[in-house]
TrEMBL record:
The protein, known as: Cation-transporting P-type ATPase N-terminal domain-containing protein
Listed GO biological process terms: intracellular potassium ion homeostasis; intracellular sodium ion homeostasis; potassium ion import across plasma membrane; proton transmembrane transport; sodium ion export across plasma membrane
One example GO MF annotation: ATP binding
PANTHER family referenced in this protein's UniProt entry, alphabetically: P-TYPE ATPASE, SODIUM/POTASSIUM-TRANSPORTING ATPASE SUBUNIT ALPHA
Family of this protein: Belongs to the cation transport ATPase (P-type) (TC 3.A.3) family. Type IIA subfamily.
The keyword Transmembrane helix appears for this protein: yes
Domain Cation-transporting P-type ATPase N-terminal: 13-87
Amino acid sequence: MNEKTTIDLQNIPFWSMEISKVVGILETDAQKGLSENEAKKRIKIFGPNIIEKRQQSPVFFILLNQFRSPLILILLSAGIITFSIAHYRDAIFIFAALMANTILGFYQEYKAEKALAELKTYLKQRIRVIRESMEHEIDAANLVPGDIIHFSQGDRIPTDGRLFYVNELQIDETILTGESLPVSKTTEPVSLNSVIGDQNSMVFAGTVVTQGVGIAVTCRTDFSTELGKIATLVAKSQREETPLQNSIKRFSIKLGIFVGIFTVGIFITGIALGYSPIEMFLTAVAIAVSAVPEGLPVAMTVILSVGVQRMARRKGVIRKLIAAETLGSATVILTDKTGTLTEAKMELDKILPITTGEEKKLLEMALINTDVLIENPSDPYSAWRTSGRVLETSLVRSAALRGVFVEDIKNKTPVLSFLPFNAANKFSASLIHNEGKHLLIFFGAPDIFVNHSTMNETEKNKILEEISSLAESGKLVTGIATKEIEKKEDFAFSKDLNLKNLSFKGLITLRDPVRSNVKEAINSVEASGIKVVMMTGDHRGTAESVAKEVGMNLEKRSVLDSSELQTLSDTDLKERLSFLKIISRVSPTDKIRIVKAFQETGKIVAMAGDGVNDAPSIKQADIGIAMGSGTEVARDVADLVLLDDNFETIAAAVKEGRQIMSNIRKTLVYLLSDIADELLLIGGALITGLALPLNALQILYVNFFADSFPAVAFAFEKNIDGLNRRSQKIKTGLFDPVMKFLILFIGLSTSALLFFLYWLLLRIGFSEDLVRTFIFASFGSYTLFLAFSVRSLEKSIFRYSLFSNLYLFFGVCIGIILMGMAIYAPFMQSLLDTVSLPPFWILGVLFVGVFNIAAVEFGKWVFRIKKT
């Protein structure tokens, strides 16, 4: 073998080939295996059978990442410049704002992703291998293509391999396909077009043997395996920044460009008018500082943190702070079926005896045919640790919940001989002593029993139709039949078994139950304007059955199978998306393709799942959601982890996400409403030759300290607007028309009023210090009053209680106290260059505040009129 073979092995359809051809391609011997020398050569070519652990980002880089925001960079630049010209007080205030925001952001982002490290643990094991005709145990990391591996019940498969010997082999492939039942394996080739879930002649790395034994020739190792491909997808999946991050970034860049142009313009104008370069430089710094809403990063962090805490109380843990808002903007939720909508466990569904009233007797006959070990039978049924076939353990547990216990049945009816279930027979059988006779009890595939029964053709067809109907509805259908035989001491199934003239007794169905409240949760999510699509590795009929059970209305275009998906171009797929509600038999690659297709059509996608097979698409989605009981891999790449595994929590998280987004919008209006004040007041004073009405330290004091407490308090707003309306899309822009109008209307009207008052009061002859303090007090106080008005961007201030958000009320009180200290405390007067205001001037400050509330209420009224 050579290095070219490494690439070729990934593209060879081993599942569809005869084993002799597979052995030939891999240049090995099915009986003797590889030689040790050949194995050493191949490990140099293919490398060890491990998935390398990805290097995690050092703590320093996580800290450095907090400074990527353009908004923070503007503030940082202002701080450095201010410090460099020896304005240390201003610099300290700026750096205090930076430090608070950096610490909060770093704390939330500290946990690094460990998905590949978890995938590696699936392959760290020992396995029996045949080399040079000898079977011995080696580290699975040393396996190479061509190795012959031997495995049995309980083993985890370490590589992808082609089977050439099986004995009752069943493998749990949930990790790859999401199917809850083990798959029976065969040595026979299967169709070339078979998807992973149907490649029954193959075994796959990471899957678990639940029954039987098997021998396979290793075809692919490490990243060439199906599990390795998922690891590669997880590593390559690009996590796009959230819509809020993109919008904030766009806004910050635009703000930076505007501030830069405006600042340079003011600097050049001042020099041209004869001002000194140093004086103009200080003025330019003041303008730059004034244009940056210093309290915004901290306020947003707190809003997101409070929302995350509220989600945690609802059993939803957000792993990345900035992603909390994305759920509020989500337009599509793609969800796995097994373990997400269903409980990922089989339970007894229906008992359908031929003779009415014999339900318990039919169940007892089925239990006689089970081979289940209960390790802790004295514990509650839900806590039983059982081993055996999944179907049989589920039946035993479900029967116990109905008061029928397998041990009691077997003690009452001793089994003389037992034939375990196998894939060839498709049934198990027990020989018991019954009223002086021997009775055979069969349990397994019902169609076999019906066809060998004593019923007439009409009766047979009726039962077979019922079996088909139950199977199409997603049920696992089993049958029970009996046959009386002559008493025989040396009875042996191998020579005496005869299926003719069976007495068919009835059907027992099992199902993977839908989680409680899922139907209501899906209805709630869809009512809020979010599309729900089920993606599953299970069969179409099962998926349709679950979809109907959770209330999805299906039509022909609503369901897409993986085989049909492969034939669709990207354009055709995008055209089909609006109709889709189910996609069945999907692979991890299919799931990523679906996620990307929705994203490319402008949708904000949430992906919910619980298995390794879901991890790449969970990471690719705008927000990934994992079940708490799911695999560590899925949890590590997710943004939201549902501790209670309840889809209903997604509905609650969507509502909380919308509340977060609503609170962020209110905070933006609140903090940005005074930007025009600072720019026009300072710019206007410069152009008209007046002294600057505000200095940089006063602006910082108001923006970061006085204003920040109410801004942070918006995090605790809840349900004031009602959040059942459809999501607000922010991919195209952060500010909606109402926000733009309020910010511009408030800003321009207040700026004009404050500048007019500043010019008028100086013109009348009041002292400059008194007038500047009045402008500072008005500038710092009116936004505090404004906080009550922007609690809702829709409702009138008279439609809600001013005291329903006590955090905001006390935040405003703290802001007023801080402004009072800035004006009347001697130390603060010295620091901020203020003087005490007489009582009459305080009335003027209140007038400015009332004027702004009236302006906001007028703006909201205008938009309410437009809506009606």
